[in-house]
């Protein structure tokens, strides 16, 4: 039997009286693109931030390849092969696109010392160039990231998460604020990355066409709970999900 890359069991997190995540369990298998959908405020980002060590859950266990990683710091998780993108852009506007990628990997490598004294490139340039080609952003690679359109910056932001060659990448709303004409491009890019880099992805996204087309399985969260987990076809046909979410 294949072991899950990510296993979340009984995750809970409350903010005062608000039970943001109220006992969430799911598994992500190797090579799987796992979607997370649900209305605003249903606990998706809180679940993400718990998995990523950004916040400490009240209860529950998070395992990466069978290893308990509950409460690990974002830096430790990054070293263990967990990458992420945020709901909002994290690029450095004044730096070139290529330098943004290199710096993202240097942060992964860690210490201030290595950042100050490592030779300017240390092999990361080749990695950055490979991603720049795969993301088809060669024509803007030497521009300041801040000069790019929002959609292009989003691509840079996603590429940054892949510099550390992560085994698992969590993407929080990769299409948010992106021009609809670019959404299909992000989808085929993620499919391509999934195929060529054999990583597993967890993707939060509101764009239903995008999720249904991209993801192998989808988890529906409502009010901090898991309402359903299934293939896109199963989720589309789920009466409870239709009533609570998709039908609206
Ligand atoms: N730092 C926080 N402090 C207080 N309440 C929070 C905080 N983060 C999230 N919440 C609340 O937890 C619930 C879930 O939020 P969130 O995880 O952001 O949902 P989603 O990402 O699905 O929109 C919401 O009611 C939100 O207001
Ligand atoms: Mg959110």
Describe the structure.
The chain is of the alpha/beta class and 248 residues long. It has two domains: 1-81 and 166-248, 3-Layer(aba) Sandwich (Rossmann fold); 90-164, no CATH class. It is built from ten helices and ten strands. Helix 7 links the parallel strand 7 (168-172) and strand 8. The radius of gyration is 18 Å and the shape is globular. The model is unreliable at 110-115 (pLDDT under 50). The structure holds adenosine-5'-diphosphate (ADP) and magnesium ion. Adenosine-5'-diphosphate binds next to strand 2 and helix 1. It holds the Pfam family ABC_tran. Keywords: ATP-binding, Cell membrane, Membrane, Nucleotide-binding, Transport. This is ABC transporter ATP-binding protein.
Which structural class matches the secondary elements? alpha/beta
Helix content: 25-40%
Overall morphology = globular
CATH class type of the largest domain: Alpha Beta
Profile the largest sheet: 6 strands, mixed
Q: How large a portion of the residues is in β-strands, by DSSP E?
A: 15-25%
Taking all Cα atoms into account, the compactness measure Rg is: 18 Å
CATH superfamily of the largest domain: P-loop containing nucleotide triphosphate hydrolases
**Would you list the SSEs in sequence order as H and E?**
EEEHEEHEHHHHEHEHEEHH
Task: Name a few traits of the molecule.
248 residues, alpha/beta, Rossmann fold, 2 domains, six-stranded mixed β-sheet, four-stranded antiparallel β-sheet, 10 strands, binds adenosine-5'-diphosphate, binds magnesium ion
């Amino acid at each position: 039997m294949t072991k899950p890359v990510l296993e979340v069991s009984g995750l809970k997190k409350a903010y005062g009286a608000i039970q943001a995540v109220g006992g969430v369990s799911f598994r992500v298998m190797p090579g799987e693109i796992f979607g997370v959908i649900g209305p605003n405020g249903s606990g998706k980002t809180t679940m993400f931030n718990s998995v990523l060590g950004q916040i400490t859950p009240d209860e529950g266990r998070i395992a990466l390849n069978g290893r308990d990683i509950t409460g690990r710091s974002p830096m430790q998780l990054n070293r263990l092969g967990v990458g992420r993108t945020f709901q909002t852009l994290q690029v450095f506007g004044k730096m070139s696109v290529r330098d943004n990628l290199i710096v993202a990997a240097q942060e992964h490598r860690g210490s201030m010392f290595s950042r100050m004294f490592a030779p300017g490139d240390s092999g990361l340039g080749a990695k950055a160039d490979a991603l720049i080609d795969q993301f088809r952003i060669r024509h803007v690679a030497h521009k300041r990231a801040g000069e790019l359109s929002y959609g292009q910056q989003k691509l840079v932001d996603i590429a940054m998460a892949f510099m550390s060659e992560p085994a698992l990448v969590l993407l929080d709303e990769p299409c948010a604020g992106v021009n609809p004409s670019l959404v299909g491009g992000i989808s085929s890019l993620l499919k391509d990355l999934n195929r060529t880099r054999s990583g597993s992805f967890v993707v939060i996204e509101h764009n239903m066409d995008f999720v249904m087309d991209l993801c192998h399985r989808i988890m529906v969260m409502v009010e901090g709970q898991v309402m359903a987990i299934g293939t896109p076809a199963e989720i589309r046909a789920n009466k409870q999900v239709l009533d609570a979410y998709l039908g609206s």
